[in-house]
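Hi R.,

Here's the chain you asked about this morning:
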Amino acid sequence: MLGEIKGLNEECGIFGVWGHPESAQLTYYGLHALQHRGQEGAGIVTSDGEQMKVAKGHGLINDVFSQDRLDELDGSASIGHVRYATAGDGSYENIQPLMFRSQTGGLALAHNGNLVNAQALKGQLEAQGSILQTTSDTEVVAHLIKRAGHVPVDEAICQALSMIKGAYAFLMMTEDKLFVANDPRGLRPLSIGYLGDSWVVSSETCAFDIIGATYEREVKPGELVVIDKNGLESKRFAAPIQRTLCSMEHVYFSRPDSNLDGKNVHASRKRMGKALADEAPVEADVVTGVPDSSISAAIGYAEAAGLPYELGLIKNRYVGRTFIQPSQELREQGVKMKLSAVRGIVEGKRVVMVDDSIVRGTTSRRIVKMLKEAGALEVHVRIASPPIENPCYYGIDTSTSGELIAANSSVEEIEKQIGADSLSYLSVDGLNQSIYEGNESLEHGGCMACFTGNYPTEIYPNTVLPYEKA
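And the predicted structure, written out as tokens:
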């Protein structure tokens, strides 16, 4: 499970509101719904049309924002962000939204994703006199926008977005406009909804349900949406490209009550479980899933296999996802605290344990051991995704294959390392069909680079800034 990843970076959640007198409060609720996407820091920026205010801090939404602090964030427009940090990268300056002020006005940015050419752009910007205040790749975009010169803000944003490469879903805000952008391949999810006469934007549609908003549509790949007092205007900063939404959004990251490109996440995960049961049957007595992201796949596996689904593992609801913890020591302690085996369910049984993925193998080994210590006769591990053999450069910071157990061990070797009686993964074709079957807009599938090594963009290209050509 992704709780094992070391040094994950920037799989975050963003939420925005335009045209509502309680925009900060709505953004607070929206970020609550996206809390699973980041627990290390949160922030909100508001605008009353003339002035922008920012509040942010380390921790959960409840830790960062009291009612008094929210009351100070007046204005009918706002953007918010939840994030987690890598070790050594959790400074206050990196908590988003990032806020910049200049003689021509303010600019706030919130970003989900990762820019693969950020380091090259930073080097070029610094060589030309820019002074970067954070280690976040998001700051690069602000500098690119500012260096576009005296052009309308939407034009400057389009120019900046045309220079960056990678995965990004952006919310940007000035005193009088809200800008929404998705990268040319739509690697990260981003949707628009409405609440009365107000517009709302969210990484996941589940946040719309929390505030009573109605889903309108997803932000298209390569699209810049401009929202102001005149309504919503759509612009294009990049030519249309076949969408390659990150498959791990369906496998793990998104909440099961969210919809991605018209597909419900819970339904997709159930289909993964059913396909896994067809591909890797085993004689067993019960099926259980690792809470929370694997429950849907486990239910699907049990239905297809004709076996009872049972709560063989219970999660402590007051402990967050272990992958979000900023150090390995805290992650390991988190695994011990977050799960318990239900002895009355697994004792004397042959158990199928369904999980969403295996990254380093540490957590899987502990869970298998936990089930056997609770009396399970056999533990057969079934993974509802293919082996993760390749680094991700688009927001899941597994930047080297050395930390990926599947890149260095065979399935048989992993089976022995985690102590399972058997181990099987879902095939790439099985995953692709489970997620995208019947969805014409994604008929060629999403990004599966971590499974296949086929990256939808160039990696670390030698990008040249347009103004250097003059």
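The two ends are 49 Å apart (CA to CA).

Let me know if you need anything else.
M.
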